[in-house]
Amino acid sequence: MLSKKIETALNEQIAKEAYASNHYLAMASWCEKEGLRHSAAFHYTQSEEETQHMRKLLHYVNAAGGHGLVSEVKEPPNDFKSIFEIFELALEHEIKVTKSINSLVDLCLKEKDYSTFNFLQWYVSEQHEEEKLFNSILDLTRITGTDPRGVFFFDSEISKLRAEEANEK
What we know:
Blueprint lengths: L3 H30 L3 H27 L19 H29 L2 H31 L3 H21 L1
Helix pairs in contact: 1-2, 1-3, 2-5, 3-4, 4-5
C-alpha cells in the first residue's frame, strides 16, 4: 500500500511525463513543418515513449492501492529557433526529469517504500540512457555546424542514432 506522500509524488511524476510527451510532440511538429523528417520521427517516438512512461506510473500507482491521476497538462513551447535549440531544450528537460526521478527515489528510501524504490530503478536507468543519447546528439550538432548542409547531414544522422540506441538495449 502506498503512503499518501508517495502517491502524491508519483502523481506529480505522471503529470511531468505527460508534459514531456506533449513537449516532444510540439518539437516533432516543428521539425515536420521545417522539413526535418528524421528529427520529426525521432521526436514523435520520444513523445510515444514518454506516454508509455506515464502509463507505467499510472498502472503502478493503481496496482499499489493508490489512485493514478490524469491532470491538466501545461502547453509546451511550439516555436523554436533551430533544430539545435530543440535538442538543447530536450537535454535540459531530461536533466529535470532525472532530478525528479532521483527525488522520488530519495523519498522512497526515507519512507521505507522498497517496492516503489525497486519499481523506480527502471526509470533511473532510462534517464541515464536519455541523457547519454541527447549528449551524443548535441556532440553531433557541434560537429555538423548550422549551415544548411550541416543541418541536412544532422537530420539524416538522427535516424542512425536512434537505431544505435535500440541495438545497445
